UniProtKB/TrEMBL annotation:
Residues annotated as transmembrane: 12-30, 62-84
Entry cofactors: heme c
Family: Belongs to the CcoP / FixP family.
Cofactor comment: Binds 2 heme C groups per subunit.
Domain Cytochrome c: 130-210, 217-301
Function recorded in the entry: C-type cytochrome. Part of the cbb3-type cytochrome c oxidase complex.
Top-level lineage group: Bacteria
Binding site for heme c 2: M186, C229, C232, H233
Organism: Comamonas denitrificans
Record bears the keyword Oxidoreductase: yes
Matches recorded under InterPro entries: CcoP_N, CcoP_N_sf, Cyt_c-like_dom, Cyt_c-like_dom_sf, Cyt_c_oxidase_cbb3_su3, Cytochrome_c_Oxidase_Subunit
GO MF terms, alphabetically ordered: electron transfer activity; heme binding; metal ion binding; oxidoreductase activity
GO CC annotation, single: plasma membrane
Protein name: Cbb3-type cytochrome c oxidase subunit
Amino acid sequence: MSDFVNNFWSIYIAVIAIVGIFGCLLLLILTARKKVDSAADNTTGHVWDGDLRELNNPMPRWWMWLFVSTIVFSVFYLIAYPGLGSFSGQFKWSQVGAYEAEVQKAEADLAPLYARFTAMSVEEMSKDSQAMAIGANLFQNNCAQCHSSDARGGKSFPNLTDNDWLHGGTPEKIHETLTQGRQGMMPPMAAAVGEAEDVRNLANYVLSLSGSPHDSARAVLGKDKFVACAACHGADGKGMQALGAPNLTDDIWLHGWGEATIIDMINNGKVNIMPPQAKENGGKLVPAQIDVLTAYVWSLSNKPSTAN
């Protein structure tokens, strides 16, 4: 059914284009042959404002040939380029093809520049002003939409400057994250915790782990319920980077904090996705660009210390 509908629209568009072209040609022929009776003074008889008369002069020859030339041009254009439904044209031009050609040319032009960086370690690149300038541009074009232009993120988007990493902040882990992307998921835990009051008690215990404002009495009651969370967050609540489970003791809240927010997380869970940035996995960046971006992101939380 889908193929039938798509084929119909292709034919529909092609017919409209062809009928439009030949309709213009037919209109020109009919109007050229039509004779309009005129008075002896070569006017149509229409008079405005007492003395303004409409002359019955034919259209200039140059205008008519220009009109014909546009029709002829449109015919050859539709033969050479896409325009008649799904017909791709003799030149096989497409927006996607033009874009990919420009990308390939840009990559070829930049290859000598990136070649210098491939021999450098992440730490060395982080000290290279040219590499960091390129990394900053890559970040603004590909990462800032979520992590913000200053890399401090926002609600549900990690801060990349604070050295608090869900999956680890080593150059290898950052490179892995950029290449493959990440999918974080916390399943709904209410059924494993118990009744609504148990969930509320657990939420207060979680808040107590970081010293955040909480109800101390409820936190005591919720401590035993934390066993449902310990498999991912650890018995001490400090998380597990191997699973991407957040540290609950550091007072850094990716999705917001407070009793109501924690209760909502326990009841409904949360899914967070970072898409891969590597071209090989559906992103836009080639390996050399991933390397430079890795160094830039690593540098955001590994600023060299300055002597006092």
